[in-house]
Design brief:
It is a single chain. This protein is mainly beta and 438 residues long. The protein has two helices and 14 strands; from the N terminus they run αββββββββαββββββ. The chain is rod-shaped.
Length: 438
């Protein structure tokens, strides 16, 4: 008997296995081509199987009701939204890391504020129509625009009192309440600062800066309120102390020429010039009458008809005529003398004639020298003063007859436009509203 070697034995088994496979192939081919009925309405073609619930034909393990490798679930169908996705890879639970239908995101947790909401319905972005409180949103109107009731960053509902200053709706401040007087007005339209042009509840006025009506601290401007208002023409304002020191009752600085005589001033005529009733330094009262003099000679030294003339600076000049024969020129004032009259007598006659002349307003009197006539301007106020500084003219031949013109008169000499207090300060005699006028 011939012995079989190991190699020949292996060949024999291989041939036997090959024949077995060849015999089974027709059978497998018949199985693959066989169709399957899943339900009255569904028959799967050959090569496919029925799903676990018979609602679909499947060609993969997903849907066979058996959780295979790489599957997260298998509920026997190929539908989403029933707790197992149609690819069997998701249990359709928020937080599983798979973005399922109906989810906006899924970051493998159920926490808010990390870019995906706890319910996976929001990516926590402003403008998605979902108010993500954990992300700091207080509103979300599906846009990123200001001024429509929800701010561009979704962090403000744009109402006064929410502690967010919404400039787009006209707010300049928002301190979290709707109360006036706390630094932000009740309507959030004013920061309640003086000078912003808005009259707040704590202000008398607010005109965007100092005006004649409103002080810089937004109180009404009144002289004596203690607040200097330059726009109202105030130079100072010391409140109740006005008029007691350097600030006058009219809120002007106490100064020479302001028309207010203070304790340190001898006088104040409304100007600091040399005109008027007061000197430029307000230390000298200068309302003085003009004075002059005439030295007379004896009657034998005077010729009949010789004259001298006087003026008070306001009315017409008057001419005085020495008369020895009882006749004088028309309009002249007669001064009767005789040749035998001594200088003292002539002086006395001159005094009498001058004092008797109406409208001349010059007072004549004998001087320390019996032959001297002293003249003083007594023009009634307000026209006395510098206007009385007038020449005395004469045509007496005797050189011993001497005249000294009227001089030394002060006041009544300020021109139009100059400050004044009394009419006697002005050359016109008219002081109106503190100013000399024509």
């Amino acid at each position: 008997m011939k012995l079989e070697t190991p190699m020949s034995s292996m060949r024999r088994h291989a041939v036997t296995l090959l024949w077995a496979v060849l015999l089974l192939l027709p059978l497998a081919s018949c199985l693959e081509l066989e169709s399957r009925t899943c339900s009255e309405d569904l028959t799967c073609p050959s090569g496919m199987r029925c799903s676990g619930d018979g609602s679909a034909c499947i060609s993969t393990p997903c849907g066979n009701s058996i959780v295979e490798v790489d599957e997260q679930c298998d509920d026997g169908n190929l539908r989403d939204g029933d707790g197992c996705s149609k690819d069997c890879r998701s249990t359709e639970v928020c937080g599983n890391g798979t973005k399922d239908p109906g989810e906006a995101c899924d970051d493998r947790n159920n926490d808010d504020g990390d870019g995906c909401s706890a319910d996976c319905k929001s990516e926590e972005k402003c403008g998605n129509g979902i108010v993500d409180v954990a992300a700091g949103e207080v509103c979300d109107d599906r846009n990123e625009k200001d001024g429509d009731g929800c701010s561009a960053d979704c962090r403000s509902d744009e109402r006064c009192g929410n502690n967010v200053t919404d400039a787009a709706v006209g707010e300049v401040c928002d301190d979290g309440d709707t109360v006036d007087g706390d630094g932000c007005s009740a309507d959030c339209r004013s920061g309640e600062s003086c000078g912003n042009g808005i009259r707040d509840s704590t202000e008398d006025c607010d005109e965007k800066g100092e005006t004649a009506k409103c002080n810089s601290n937004c109180t009404f401007s009144v002289c004596g309120d203690g607040t200097k208002n330059i726009a109202a023409g105030e130079q100072c304002d010391e409140g109740s102390a006005n008029g007691q020191g350097g600030c006058l009752a009219n809120c002007k600085l106490n100064a020479c020429g302001d028309g207010e005589r203070q304790s340190w001033e001898v006088c104040d005529d409304g100007n600091a010039d040399a005109c008027g009733t007061c000197g430029y330094s307000c230390q000298e009262y200068r309302f003085t009458p003009a004075t002059g003099s005439i030295i007379a000679v004896g009657g034998e030294d005077l010729n009949d008809g010789e004259i001298f003339s006087l003026s008070n600076g306001i009315s017409s000049r008057r001419t005085f005529e020495f008369d020895k024969d009882g006749r004088v020129a028309q309009g002249n004032v007669r001064v009767p003398i005789q040749d035998a009259a001594d200088p003292s007598h002539v002086a006395s006659v001159m005094v009498t004639a001058i004092n008797a002349t109406e409208g001349l307003f010059l007072k004549a009197e004998k001087g320390w020298d019996p032959a001297m006539v002293i003249l003083t301007n007594i023009t009634k106020r307000p026209r006395a003063g510098a206007s009385g500084n007038q020449h005395i003219t004469d045509d007496v031949d005797d050189s011993n007859f001497k005249v000294n013109g009227m001089a030394g008169g002060g006041a009544s000499d300020c021109p139009a436009g100059m400050g004044c207090v009394y009419g006697e300060d002005c050359a016109s005699g008219n002081c109106t509203d503190g100013v000399c006028v024509q």
